[in-house]
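Progress report, Aim 2. The chain analyzed during this reporting quarter is listed below.
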Amino acid sequence: MTKEQAKRQAKELVARMTAEEKVSQLLYNSPAIDRLGIPDYNWWNEASHGVARSGMATVFPHAIALAATFDPALLGQIGDAVSTEARAKYNNSILHNDRDIYKGLTYWTPNINIFRDPRWGRGQETFGEDPYLTAAMGMEYIGGLQGDGEFLKSAACSKHYAVHSGPENLRHTFNAEVSEHDLWETYLPAFEWTVKAGVAGVMGAYNRTNGEPCCSHSRLIHEILREQWGFDGYFVSDCGAITDICEYHHYTDTMAEAAALALKGGCNLNCGGAYTHLMEAYEQDLITEEDITIAAEKVFEIRYLLGEFEENRPYADIPFDKLDCAEHRALNLQAAEECMVLLKNDGYLPLDVHTDKKIAVIGHNAMSVVALEGNYNGMASEYITIADGMRRVFTDASVRAAKGSNIWVDNRNDCTGFTNMISEGIAYAQNADITVLCLGLDCHIEGEENGMHNEYFENGDKMQLRLPKTQMDLAEAVCDVCENVIVVVLAGSAVDLGEKLTGHARAIIHGWYPGAVGGLAAARLIGGLYSPSGKLPVTFYRSVEDLPEFTDYSMAGRTYRYFSGEPMYPFGYGLSYTSFRYQDAKILQDTEDVLEISVTVENTGAMDGMEKVQVYGSFTDSRTVTPIRQLCGLQAVKLAAGEKKTVTVEVQKYWLKAVLEDGSRVPADGKVLLTVGGHQPDARSAALCPDNLITVEL
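Predicted structure tokens for the chain:
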């Protein structure tokens, strides 16, 4: 079905509705209109890293972990797998007339906000701190979700538009103040690219941006999204965000005024209850029936594009047994393996999988399922924790697991037990040859507005980068009794492990929230069954003291693009078990909009591996404010030991232009240098890993 056909059919259907019926269809839980043959439909569904909140599904690594793969093509494959499972579940739900929440085909994903500050709890839902990486990953995932057939396989939604990344505690009242330069250089590009790639929906944010609520923002929605970018999909509010316009932003005096402001501002669909006041607004002449009609037609265009009203429903042949199938499990393991970032290795890894030594797997996340899942997740039929994975991989070893500490609470045992366990954890480590120390966070404390307030966490956000004291006490005590310590961190963001642990550990792996089989991926990495290739999608700072205030949305001093200090671990960094040599970089094609760069990459090590070829643009002699450097190209390449391949990387010149103070994007007035290699061209990366980069001047 073409968009024109969907528009025509939506227009014809809506024309047969009363004003009240049209309004009813602008709520996320749209009721049936029996006389017109319209079934009820619940728009709210989630699929950040697999079909969420509706039973069994493949639980892939969380979005920030997928970003760490630095492999956009992989995101397309995962999106396709997720939409296949989405259709399988939908087909079954319709068969049983189950149209409940989380049973539809409109997925409010991906979250393409910029993870500008490591304190933000929802950063785990994003693709990291870089606008290019976020756009590249988002476009591929959306393409997989929506498919390339006559009908939408499922409908993706880019969120949260725009300039939204914490603090969680203030999100319902906050006004994000941002310059035109930062707006257009950092916060809008991923939305622009995903819109032009055909995303079906865009969700507005809770906050205000430069004074105006995002879900009724005339400039953001009408001028930029619709007129400048040509967005032709539906716009939905975040859940309760229109209520916030009145109740928390105090931007209007009544809910009817808030609903009218959002509708006229271009918000077609309301997640929440604010649009129950639309008839009141209509009767007060705050809106016209034409305003209601425009929104109703837009939402029905999406339902027609999904094939909901077709006699022969599209994708109806996808069987239920595609859920959690062997093919998707294999893809899930691949994703989990590619997301693991090896931060440190003094040569101790990989271990011999046939070792008969005693291995202790200790820490709050050693046997945690929650730390595999992240948030906005489905339910897997099987979870493999780190302790489980170690037992499966090291079958000749004596593998014993213990919790050792809680995630943050540090108190003494009570009648329930399982509180003060550090002495037990130390005993396991003391009696082991090797300790795998499993530290980190989980979505119960790091995440979306969770109501927790203590010295470490504020309503889902972190207050500091250091892990809670109870985990650090365990970790430092383990260092005192065990020489061979391997640290595995499961967390959705950067954490500070402290000097003692960082210095003592033989190896450090950051595994994010790696999905249902993440524990197996971590164990296979430790055992050298594959070479790690994950790269950091965010900068690991040494302390929050290195950063501006959390509420400051200026990019000055933030992310690898504008941070002038020395990070602990840089964006784009990650070690391998093998080594790569880059040669013969050259520009194959140079048009007005696109560059094609070729480079020969050779695996010079003794192990097969995957390299993530990164291209950065660096700006010199520019009279305008430009990033220190900007990622502008990516390509994953698999190479057997000793193998050599020539790789072509496409670079859109959009990412090599300077953004002026008025937000316009123009060719840089200085020189632009392109650097091709396995990491960004900075001193810290060069100190941490082999510095094998090639520079090409434009």
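The chain has a mean pLDDT of 96. Residues 588 and 596 are 5 Å apart (CA to CA). These observations will guide the mutagenesis work planned for the next reporting period.
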